[in-house]
Structures are given as C-alpha cells and as structure tokens.
Specification:
The complex is a heterodimer of chains A (about 280) and B (about 350). Chain A has about 280 residues and is of the alpha/beta class. Helix content of chain A is about 40%, strand content about 10%. Chain A contains ten helices and five strands, in the order H-H-H-E-H-H-E-H-E-H-E-H-E-H-H. In chain A, strands 1-2-3-5-4 form a five-stranded parallel β-sheet, sandwiched between helices. The N and C termini of chain B lie far apart (about 45 Å).
C-alpha cells in the first residue's frame, strides 16, 4: 500500500461511517432531483466504501494520477452512488451535491467520463465496462504499471453477450490486474434478473472460465473487505471477480420492504423520512 | 406472411459459358493494366509502428484477411488476437487508447458496422479516442452475399459524431493514409482493400499523394465531372479513358475522405458549371458519397445536372464478383454507358 496515496483510507473514520455517509449523500442528491437510482445506491454503498477507503489506490487531488487503480462504472445509472463516494473521497467537492442532474452540472444522471473527475468511462450502455477494463488492463501491463483495474457492473449485465467475450479475453491474456465487481441485487428493469435469463451457478460459471471467483454478502462490510483483500492478494494467474449479493435500498427499512423495483419510487415527502430513518441507523 | 413470400428462390437464370470461381474473387480486386502491391496496409502499419511505439494492432480472428498478419509477424509483442469477439475488439481497443496507446483494430466492414456499432459509438467515438478501425470487404467486394457485403457501412458511420471516415481507392491511398491516420488524434473508420491491391492513382497522376480530409482532381475534363470514392475512382478513371475515345471529356474528382467532407473542393469543382455531375461509389446510394455531394451542392445553391452511380438499396445477390459488378453497374462498361446515356 502506498501510504501517501491512501491518505483518505488512513483516517480514523470507520468504513461503516463511510458507507453511511455515502448513503446519506445519495439520498440528498435524490432529494434534489426528486428521483434517482436510489435503491441501487443504498444497496451498493458498502461495496463502494470498501473500494474507495480500503481497496483502491488514488490521489484525491489528482484523479488522473498515472499510478491510480482504475475504477470503471459500467452501470452508468449508478452514477448517483459513485458521485456520493467521489465526494466522500474528496475527488468531487461536496458543495456540488445540490447540482446533481441539473443543467451545466458535472454530475449528470448517467455517468459520463467527459463530465466528472474520477469517472473513468461513459457507462450506461450496458455490457461495455468489462471489455474496456480488459483493454486498460492490457495497456497497464504494456506500461509495466502495477495498478489494478476494477470494473463495477450489475447482475443485469451478466445477460449481455459482450460481458462473456470479455470474460474469456481476461483469461486469455492472463489479466491478473483485473478485478470485476458484480452488484447482484437481482433487480433489473422488468423484474428479477434471475427470472429474465437463466443464470445458473454464477460462481461456478466464472470459475469454469478460469477466473478467481468469490461470492459474498455485499452488505457485510467485513466480508466485503476480506473479499477485496483476497482478490488483490491471490497468486491466481488470471482475472478475479467478486459477486456481491446486495439488498436494494439497504439502510432505509420502509423502502427495503416496499415492493422493490429497478427504479424505486420515492414520494416527495418521503426523502426527509428516508433521511430520518437513515439517521436512526447512524454508526456510533 | 407465407413462407413462399419470404423465400428468395431462383430458377437458374443461365448456365454460364465460362465458370467463374466466387472464392477466387474475394482476395483482391484485380484490374487489368495496373501494377499491384502486396498487403500495403500491413507493411505501411509496420513502418508507422517503427516510428510510433504507441501503435498496437488488434484483430478479431481476421488478421490474415485484413493484412494485419504482416504487422503481427513483424511485431508479435504489439499484436493482440482478440478472438471472434468484435464487441470486445472495440472495447479493448478503447481501453488501450485510454491508457495512451494508438490501437489499430481490424475486422470485416460488416462486423464493425453492424455487430460492434454500439461499442464503437459509446466506448470510442463518444470519448473521441484515437482508435483506428480498418475493415476489409467494403461494399461489394465479395460474392458471399449480404452476410459479408458491407453495402451500408459509410451511411452508418456518417451519422456518428467525431468519426473520420476513409474509403481508399488503391495501394497509393493506403500507403499514404496509414501514417496520417496514425497521427490523427481521434477515431477513424477506414475501408481496406487487402491482398494484392492495385496501384491506380499514381499511374493517372504521378505526383498524387493522399491527404487526409482532401478531395483531389485526378483527371481534368470539360464535359463530365465524376466525383468518386473507393475503388470506383479506379472505375471512373478507366471509364474516362473509354469515354475519351467517344470524344467525351470526363474529369475525375477522387474523394477518399468521406468525413470530414471536403465541401470546398466539391463546391469549387461542381460550381464551375456546364458539366454533368456524376457520383460513383461502392456503397448503397442511400446515405453515402452521392447524398453527401447532393446535400453539399443544394445547401450551397448549386444545382447542376446530377446523377448517382452506386449499389441499389437492397440486399445483394451472391455470385462471382465480376458477374455482380456487371449486374449492379460497377464495371467500366456500365459506368461509361450510363454516363453517355445521361449526356
């Protein structure tokens, strides 16, 4: 670990607190627009906290530092969650929070590389991230740059054929600097992901392709951290994947128990209620 | 819809007097009377890569059929075999470009323009990354039928912002083009004549040099102005010689760069007045060179007598390439006959 680049991680703020802050910022942005992919943001907050405050090397003041680990947001509509963690990490200034989704904002509703510091790629057309990550991992190896490429994708993207082209390629080119993160909340636009395409045993599938594969509870921070350590530290000669089972709307119980859909409806009076609910669960 | 109405079942049209092998006509676009250069793209890329160590080559199981094998053999550590996976080919090229490399990605034009389009659009063009996509079998250069005939690729990519589009005529164009697109800091789609590629333009105009973004008059003429691209510039030049024998004086304006479009030269030449203006392209007449010229002329208030030569807006037949070129009007005979008919 490069201690200079990990100053944010070295602070004594707990990962639980980081995850809570990410959820809070995401809710505040959702309130600004009266909408947003808040269910996904609440669900993936623990994974993002562990990414930016445990696993990744970066310099907040220099988002394009050549030595940084690359973090690709393949799921562009999770942008609200990434903006929250980029603010928490000091890459985006917090005072831009209230510009979320507005004209001239650096934080559009779907993530785009040309708009936002720290946003490596333009996601949103699904099934793109892992292929780009393969190319970047090949490029880093050409440069003898020891950085890792992390690609955060959704379970829905497991249905895209391009994902599996990249899965095979990562093994073919022995990309042991590539770590794929799958947010498995089992929700896509029309319902359950597992009810849309027969997925079989995801863990066994990735292993059969030659990946180092783990599947953990994505809302259990200790398990998430351990999985990141294992993925980074293993001597497996190829790429690594961590499948995180997460719960949509995690941390706001009345939303968690609502009939969960891909795009969670939150009434205008409910944002304050959701923030209050989150406040009740604030880590000590 | 009945099965019968969906099927395209043909009665044998004719028993050919002389058998023409379809497969033999795929490798290169031979034309009588021209010298050929072997695999000009591959050799030009090796030369460019010696001067620019950021250049890497990628192919989706078609290195041998896009002349990239020359590069792969000369610089094996700079070549990536991406497998039969065109979406990945484009995504990975984008990733390499993000890390500072200058990737040349090759496949067939049908696969780049149809199968991999979203990946070219979002991962490469939207980010304005310097990925050079070079594609063999453009337009009607194979008898394999619509699965391999990229008759609408120029139309598809013309609609894509940031994309530079090139339809080279011959080996001279390719040899000139490779270092120029290597130096271009943005995405490029180039059609790619491959194999034994004729050298055409320098025979008609010895000092010809490809210039990215420029249309160039190859031959002067008072009666007709043929505005052409790709190998149809070769057909146009040969047709002009044929027409000269009938006292028709035809000029040929070669437009290898389809985008950005050299409107100034087009306007200057077509605006001289008095000449029939004919466009000629190895592409459907929908959305290609012809329509680009037409909109350029009309929006600038120039309206000469105007005709288009190109492929029809339909899925083409399979067969021997010379037969198909005759059928769809891309031969020297057909081009010169049609022009005479329009005069």
């Amino acid at each position: 670990m490069n201690s200079e680049s990990r100053s944010a991680a070295l602070s004594n703020v707990s990962l639980e607190m980081r995850a809570w802050n990410i959820r809070r910022k995401a809710l505040l942005m959702g309130e600004v627009q009266g909408q947003g992919y808040i269910g996904q943001a609440l669900g993936v907050a623990d994974v993002l906290a562990a990414s930016y405050f445990h696993a990744l090397e970066y310099r907040p003041e220099d988002p394009e530092w050549e030595g940084r680990d690359r973090f690709l947001l393949s799921i562009g509509h999770y942008a609200i969650a990434l903006y929250a963690v980029l603010m928490e990490a000091g890459i985006l200034p917090e005072n831009e929070l209230e510009t979320y989704g507005m004209d001239d904002s650096r934080m559009p509703m779907s993530g785009m590389a040309s708009y936002t510091p720290g946003m490596e790629i333009t996601g949103g057309s699904l099934g793109h991230g892992l292929g780009i990550a393969v190319g970047m991992a090949m490029g880093l190896k050409r440069k003898n740059n020891p950085a890792f490429v992390f690609n955060l994708m959704s379970d829905g993207e497991l249905g895209e054929g391009s994902t599996w082209e990249a899965v095979m390629s990562g093994v073919q080119h022995r990309l042991d600097n590539l770590i794929c993160l799958v947010d498995f909340n089992d929700q896509q636009a029309d319902g359950k992901s597992t009810a849309a395409l027969a997925q079989g045993d995801e863990l066994a599938k990735w292993r059969a392709f030659g990946w180092h594969a783990q599947r953990v509870d994505g809302n259990d921070l200790r398990a998430v951290v351990a999985a990141f350590d294992e993925a980074r530290g293993t001597d497996h000669p190829g790429p690594r994947v961590i499948i995180f089972d997460t719960r949509m709307c995690k941390g706001v119980d009345f939303l968690e128990t609502r009939e969960i859909t891909h795009f969670v409806r939150v009434e205008s009076d409910e944002w304050a209620k959701a923030l209050a609910k989150l406040e009740e669960g604030k880590p000590q | 819809m009945t099965l019968a109405s969906m099927a395209r079942k043909y009665e044998p049209r004719r028993i050919p007097e002389q058998k023409v092998a379809t497969t033999a006509m795929i490798a290169s676009l031979a034309a009588e009377g021209y010298d050929t250069v072997n695999a000009p793209f591959g050799h030009a890329l090796v030369e460019a890569a010696r001067k620019d160590d950021r250049i890497v080559g990628l192919s989706a199981d078609l290195a041998k059929y896009t002349d990239l094998h020359i590069f792969a053999q000369a610089m094996p550590d700079r070549f990536y075999q991406m497998g039969m996976a065109e979406q990945l080919l484009m995504s990975a090229a984008a990733g390499l470009a993000r890390e500072g490399f200058n990737p040349f990605a090759t496949t067939y034009a049908v696969f780049a323009s149809r199968r991999a389009y979203d990946f070219i659009a979002m991962a490469i063009a939207e980010e304005n990354l310097p990925v050079k996509i070079c594609c063999a079998l453009p337009g009607l250069t194979t008898g394999y039928g619509p699965s391999h005939q990229a008759t609408e690729d120029l139309a598809i990519f013309r609609g894509l912002p940031n994309m530079t589009i090139i339809d080279p005529c011959d080996a001279d164009d390719i040899i000139g083009m490779v270092p120029q697109i290597a130096a271009h800091d943005g995405p490029v789609y180039s059609r790619l004549p491959r194999g034994k590629v004729p050298s055409v333009l320098t025979r008609h105009k010895p000092d010809y040099k490809f210039e990215l973004g420029k249309a160039q008059v190859i031959r002067e003429g008072r009666d007709v102005l043929i505005i052409s691209t790709g190998f149809m510039s070769m057909r146009a030049l040969d047709a002009a010689e044929r027409l000269a024998a009938d006292n028709v004086d035809a000029a040929v304006l070669h437009v290898p760069t389809i985008k950005p479009f050299d409107a100034a030269t087009i306007l200057a030449e077509a605006g001289r007045g008095g000449r029939l203006v004919v466009t000629a392209e190895n592409h459907t007449i929908v959305g290609g060179l012809g329509e680009a010229v037409a909109s350029t002329l009309l929006t600038n208030g120039i309206a000469p007598t105007f005709r288009m030569i190109g492929l029809p807006g339909q899925f083409l037949e399979a067969g021997a390439l010379p037969t198909l070129h005759e059928m769809y009007g891309l031969t020297v005979d057909k081009v010169s006959e049609r022009i005479k008919g329009w005069l």
